[in-house]
Design a protein that fits this description.
single chain, 186 residues, fumarase, globular, 26% strand, 7 strands, alpha/beta
Length: 186
């Protein structure tokens, strides 16, 4: 297992070097968005309207942060179950999105689109939102403010720890992990 440090936004070269199972520490801007914001973005694309944020080369973190405590930049900021974004992911990948951060697996359609669009899916540790928030150095609402915690945020990451789950070569950390576990049990 490799450890890589990557500055965002993602380049094609950075995506090409990533392999399922790599630990990656992301630094730089990401878009924070959940279900309601994804729905609005995909509706805008379907109507030929511009997105409120340019997703080309960007990473979306599936997060709905808790209220910000005094003296902090952000509240707890753990990953949301990524499968809930599957109905909206393919159009965003086709619009140039290069990566997503969430928890759990993705549908076969999303995995194929990740390969086809040369994008990557990262896993963040679920249940560790308070710890993960320590790697977020800035946050501002940039679109859909009316959605509250489901608005679109611009987050500034600092060595934010993730695992590459699906790479552009068809690598699948979840399938490989299950296979290895079954070998241990056999």
């Amino acid at each position: 297992m490799r450890e890589l440090y990557i500055n965002l936004p993602l380049t094609d070269e950075a995506v090409a070097q990533l392999r399922a199972g790599d630990w990656v520490y992301l630094t730089g801007p990401v878009i924070g968005a959940r279900d309601a914001a994804h729905r609005r973005m995909v509706e805008a694309l379907a109507q030929g309207q511009p997105l409120p944020v340019d997703v080309r080369g960007q990473v979306i973190y599936y997060v709905g942060p808790t209220p910000t405590p005094p003296g902090r930049v952000i509240g707890s900021a753990g990953p949301t179950t990524a499968a809930r974004m599957d109905p909206y992911t393919v159009p965003l990948l086709e619009a140039g999105l290069k990566g997503a951060i969430g928890k759990g697996g993705r549908s076969p359609q999303v995995r194929e689109a990740l390969r086809r669009c040369r994008a990557v899916y990262f896993l963040a540790v679920g249940g560790a939102g308070a710890l993960l928030s320590k790697h977020i150095k800035g946050m501002q609402v940039i679109a859909y403010e009316d959605l509250g915690p489901e608005a679109i945020f611009l987050l500034e990451l600092d060595a934010f720890p993730v695992l590459v789950c699906y790479d552009i070569y068809g690598g699948d950390l979840l399938t490989e992990g299950r296979r290895r576990w079954q070998e241990v049990l056999a």
